[in-house]
């Protein structure tokens, strides 16, 4: 089985930090961004979030600059304080030891993805990675999932995705991939409707591994 792994809110506790970095960059650039608004958009790509928050075209010079500044702010001031969720490394090791092929599938850009995996202490376990740089459209579009499947040379029927947001659910569904949800990113079971299984976080997946669909070996 190929297991596609989201990172933010799934393996590392970063969703609030992403939201706060958007609020701060808005204050610095003159765009009032409310925390309660942006918090529930985290999980989409920045190219989708930007016009919702500022009205800017992500392809414009100003839009590109703001996205770059937001990413730099997140990596320099917020990311160094983040921690992996309990059981994050145990989960990745358990999946690997069970014989599953693992591929990162995240809406983060490549630079942020590398930094997040290093901060979470997982960079040595996850060599196969896809980011928003590998997809024409970010989540909830299925492009990143398709890119991850292509990276692994796998079909949708032989894969499962683990993620924490409704945008992950939609991306997996639109690609025909089964989905396992985690609540540690802040969403509810209702928000993750469509997931085959839902757990509180990585630690509970590990403790329930033998009862999970992850214990099987899809063709």
* CATH architecture title of the largest domain: 3-Layer(aba) Sandwich
Structural class: alpha/beta
Task: Report strand order across the widest sheet.
Answer: 3-2-1-4-5-6
CATH class of the largest domain: Alpha Beta
Report on the architecture of this protein:
- The protein is of the alpha/beta class and 219 residues long.
- The protein has two domains: 2-13 and 83-215, Rossmann fold (3-Layer(aba) Sandwich), CATH 3.40.50.1000; 15-81, DNA polymerase, domain 1 (Orthogonal Bundle).
- Helices cover 42% and strands 11% of the residues.
- It has nine helices and six strands, in the order E-H-H-H-H-H-E-H-E-H-E-H-E-E-H.
- It has helices at residues 15-29, 35-39, 46-54, 61-78, 88-97, 110-119, 143-152, 166-175, 202-207; strands spanning 2-5, 101-105, 129-130, 159-163, 178-182, 197-199.
- The radius of gyration is 16 Å and the shape is globular.
Quick overview:
By secondary structure, this protein is of the alpha/beta class.
Question: What structural keywords apply?
Answer:
219 residues, Rossmann fold, DNA polymerase, domain 1, 9 helices, 42% helix, globular
């Amino acid at each position: 089985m190929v297991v596609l792994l989201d990172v933010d809110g799934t393996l590392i506790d970063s969703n609030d930090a992403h939201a706060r970095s958007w609020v701060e960059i808005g204050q610095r650039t003159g765009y009032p961004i409310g925390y309660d608004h942006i918090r529930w958009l985290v999980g989409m790509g920045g190219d989708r979030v930007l016009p919702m928050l500022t009205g800017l075209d992500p392809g414009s010079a100003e839009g590109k600059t703001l996205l770059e500044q937001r990413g730099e702010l997140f990596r320099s001031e917020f990311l160094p304080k983040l921690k992996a969720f309990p059981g994050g490394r145990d989960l990745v090791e358990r999946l690997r030891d069970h014989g599953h092929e693992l591929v990162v599938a995240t809406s983060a850009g490549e630079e942020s993805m590398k930094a997040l995996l290093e901060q979470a202490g997982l960079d040595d376990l996850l060599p196969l990675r896809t980011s928003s740089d590998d997809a024409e459209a970010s989540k909830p579009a299925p492009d990143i999932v398709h890119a991850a499947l292509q990276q692994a040379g796998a079909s949708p029927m032989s894969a499962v995705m683990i993620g924490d947001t409704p945008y992950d659910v939609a991306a997996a569904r639109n690609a025909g991939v089964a989905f396992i949800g985690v609540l540690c990113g802040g969403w509810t079971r209702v928000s993750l409707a469509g997931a085959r299984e839902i757990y509180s976080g990585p630690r509970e997946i590990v403790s329930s591994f033998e009862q999970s669909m992850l214990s099987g070996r899809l063709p």
